[in-house]
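A quick word before the example. In earlier lectures we treated sequence and structure as two separate objects. From today on, think of them as two lines of the same record. Here is M1 family metallopeptidase written that way.
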Amino acid sequence: MKRFYVLLIAFSIGLTGFSQEKEHEGKFEQLGTDLPTPNSFRTGSGAPGKDYWQQQADYIIEVELDDEKQTITGSETITYHNNSPETLRYLWVQLDQNMRAKDSDTPKIRAGSISRDSIPAKFFQSGLGDTDYEGGYKIASVKDTNGKDLPHRINQTMMRVDIPRPLAPGQKYSFSIDWSYNINDRMLVGGRSGYEFFPKDGNYSYTIAQWFPRMAVYDDVNGWQNKQFLGRGEFALPFGDYKVKITVPADHIVASTGVLQNPKEVLTSEELKRFEEAKKAFDEPVIIVSQAEAEQKEASPNYRKKSTWEFHADDVRDFAFATSRKYIWDAMAVDIAGKKPLAMSFYPKEGNPLWEKESTHAVRKALITYSKYTIDYPYPVAISVHAASIGMEYPMICFNFGRPREDGTYSDNTKYRMIGVIIHEVGHNFFPMIINSDERQWTWMDEGLNTFVQYRTEQEQYENFPSRRGSAANIVPYMKGDKKFIRPIMTNSEQIVQFGNNAYAKPATALNILRETIMGPELFDYAFKEYARRWAFKHPTPADLFRTMEDASAVDLDWFWKGWFYSTDNVDMAIDNVKWFKLKNEKPGLEKNVKSTKIGGSDAQSGAENETNTDFSNGFEEIVLTDTDPRFYGEYKNRVDDAAIRQKFADKNFYEITFKNNGGLVMPIILEWEYKDGTKEIEKIPAEIWRMNEQETKKVFAKDKEVVNIVMDPHFETADTNVEDNVFPKKEVKSRFDKFKEKSGK
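And the structure line, produced from the sequence above:
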């Protein structure tokens, strides 16, 4: 029989860990120098410091869109406020349209090959970057407020403006830029903004963004943002106030960032009446421009008569608009803690009936759920505009795909993908339009966080929504893929290999696991909301998120950030072995189904300590609790009652489980115990169980009832990439993961 000292269980397991010290990978070491040193601008708690500052850029813009030539011509005055402690000798302006200029680096760095004998002509042409489109800004002038030319230097998508006198802290400087460019055909050359042409009626829909020269960010982390816009990494922009006048054909409807200042001048009396009704409609959208009215304008376009729409927007980091005579327009109010922003949709007839039925409701549901998890939506409008094959976001407005067939029918897949993209793009109002991370550097900080709250919205606002990203089960194929094609989440946008998985799905899944499995909803939600509160209308970095989540929850998560965000490890835990023990029963005649093992001397069975079981068929092993040797008491004078302890554990079942970590990513261990009487129990063990040995650990469990089945991660919460070794007894059964997918429909 085996002599088993309960007092030494933890000690023996600890020795196993210490013996592996040379192989210790440091998964539980603090991030330490991996994060920037706290200072008076950004504190060690993750909050803005007492000296935190950020710049401001205000714009006054007048722009005209030519619907016959598909061009934009504009003039803007920028007032730049230097709130930094530094004196600036020059200013940097972003020229994103230059990404499409003939001398752009974007097509030059685009890798490609001819790997087959036939290629669609469209893709061949666009892959070479050899279209007839002449893109890029034409900068007509850069002047000061007195009309004097300012020296400036254009470097690809950035323009340095040399100011006549250094701009001291606390000062502001105003200058103007006149410019124009040719609007791109998105079908032909792609792009986040541009136009779509409709051959049947000869009209256009314009979704216009990155359309004016915009100030780059200057901050305490990097100074001037100096990464060129190559097409993938998005934007880093300062907040400011906007006054914008948009001139378009008079029969156009304009959707825009901001609040319309002159509705009486640009809307018909009937449209104005419906617009006012929408501000009081909380249950269903009000149709402001109907499909019949839009079709009438399509049939007889008026290119000569113009109208100017004026919009104002305060405290936004960007400005976008959409315009077309084809637009149907509906709107409804949303109650957000007493504020009543308008949820609105603009779409051509090609989007109906799907858009009229679903779009504005999806906007509303997004505002409600995102406000719950972050801050109350602060802006006066939230707009969804229908555009083919795109999902793209700007303050208060976004452009979204989802088009029915020509006969108006559509599949569930089309409907859910459309709703999902609308929720996602509306959600970008929070990440990064309000919680203003640097998209050019860290795509995941807006896309990943946003996808996480998108998942929460889909699951909370819709019944049985088939979410593509967010659940642990859905990330498994990516996580177990070839590491050559995987990068850490903490990778710059331009170097990511699998963009959707890396920047959207994996961080969203990580946050969902952090909420559901590691922290619990209560702790997570409070900390996540605190991050949003701290950094609303500011410029957070990854360190600010990591530190705030720990600061507001009192949970040490450095191991989690290191594993999920800094490595390409995957979760692959296994139940390697299970041993069943009971205390030796001193009553005769009760030795049935007992596995006896002699220990010590020449009678020891070779390999007994390392024997691997596949089931419980060998029965239990007996252990003996001996009287405690006096030497284990040290200087203590009192004693435990050894007999009482034996009595306490006399009828217990003890299960020693050996766990293996084959994937490298440490995670909590979740066990489902199934007992002989048919009952089940879930038990969760924190990830720190791996702290002494990150490859293998053992733990002993005491159970009142006899166990017949043990399953690790029974509900697929940890993104374990091989769940077949998560069961005991070990059985040859149909894949647990396949059965889960069948049951859940994923």
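Notice the following. The radius of gyration is 32 Å. We will return to this example when we discuss secondary structure assignment.
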